[in-house]
Amino acid sequence: MNELLRIAIQKSGRLQEGSLELLKEGGLAISNGRDQLKTQARNFPVEVLFLRDDDIPQYIEDNVADVGIVGENVFIEKQKNNTLIKRLDFARCRLSIAVPRSDNYTGVEWLSGKNIATSYPNIVQQFLDKNKIKAGIHEISGSVEIAPGIGLADAICDIVSTGSTLLSNGLKEVETVMQSESVLIGGPKLSSSKQEILDKLLFRIEAVNSAKNNKYILLNCPNEAIEKITSLIPGMKSPTIMPLTRVGWSSLHSVVNENDFWEKIDRLKSFGAEGILVIPIEKMIA
Ligand code: ATP
Ligand code: ZN
Predict the structure, then answer these.
(1) Residues by chain with Cβ below 5 Å of ion ligand 2
(2) Is the pLDDT of residue 116 over 80?
(3) Which domain does 228 fall in, by range?
(4) pTM here?
(5) Ligand 1 pocket test target in 93, 139, 157, 161 with most atoms within 8 Å of CB
(6) Residues 173 and 232 in one domain
(7) For residue 53, how far is its CA from the centre of ligand 2 (angstroms)?
(8) Confidence tier at 1 by pLDDT (50, 70, 90)
(9) 160-182: per-residue pLDDT in tens?
(10) Structural domain contains residue 286
(11) 90 burial class (0-12, 13-18, 19+ CB within 10 angstroms)?
């Protein structure tokens, strides 16, 4: 039997949807694993394991899974024999220290001799070491934000997205400890056939992600503007240029990055571009 690449993703939680979506956009036919522990893609040599995200680094170290998708925070915290294969650009969040709002926080020295409740003891310890602060760390696995209110700790370190959970628990964010996003991690070495499957999958993920970051753009312009426009939106190699029946005018097709999109549109207009159409790209292969 041919080998399957075993990919571990979160069974339920904030990473699950993005992980499944990424695999599906990569063309893998997989069914949602609501009640399943694992499922095999119908059209690609991949088996998807649905696990608790915190356990994924250990499963990879134990060779139960080959690769997995977790938050960078979990990857750093667990300190297993894992390597970061690729940043995946979703589930962006930050890990921050928060203290009671009534406390007069003056800077990291404030934490000296205090007790910090967190689910991320290793990351917090690294942060304290880096700042040469000695403080106690109280590890708890959930509802970290209630710890100061019930007298369990002086401060917390937890994931912050909107800050509203902090607010309703009478806390304020005072230090960012790390920024995080979803990452694909793996063990130290795959068999050559599994590596081949992974390379194919990475190629597809790349195609999906670059498509998301780029748009196809079509416009009409006077021929004198072609050179300037080409240097502004060179596209993947160079733009396609086709003559319009209107003398002295061309239609120009190219690709433009999402990040500087609006700025470029303004400049295109100033160069004389008209009838600008912008179209989403489904997959993009350089
Ligand atoms: P449990 O494992 O107990 O279900 P958890 O906090 O590990 O809890 P999730 O809340 O699903 O599980 O978070 C999974 C990952 O998603 C986190 O490790 C983090 O990387 C990321 N994450 C968490 N909260 C947010 C958020 N508000 N916005 C974006 N990403 C987040
Ligand atoms: Zn978790």
Answers:
(1) 53-54
(2) yes
(3) 214-280
(4) 0.87
(5) 93
(6) no
(7) 5
(8) low
(9) 977 788 999 999 999 999 999 99
(10) no
(11) middle
93 close to ligand 1 (CB < 6 Angstrom): yes
Strand 5-10 with 67-71, pairing: parallel
Task: Choose which residue among 70, 159, 178 to substitute to test ligand 1 binding: the one with the highest number of ligand atoms within 8 A of its C-beta.
Answer: 159
Q: Give the tens place of pLDDT for each residue, 175-225.
A: 999 999 999 999 988 999 999 999 999 999 899 888 988 999 999 999 999
Same domain, 9 and 133: no
Does residue 88 line the site of ligand 1, with CB under 6 A?
no
Average pLDDT along the chain? 94
Return d(Cα 106, Cα 112) in angstroms, integer.
11
Does any ligand 1 atom lie closer than 6 A to the CB of residue 98? no
Alpha-carbon separation of residue 136 from 26, 114, 189 (angstroms):
45, 6, 37
Q: For the chain, how many structural domains are there in total?
A: 3
Structural contact between residues 155 and 97, judged by C-beta atoms closer than 8 angstroms: yes
Q: What letter does residue 256 receive in the DSSP assignment? A: E
pLDDT value at 148 more than 80: yes
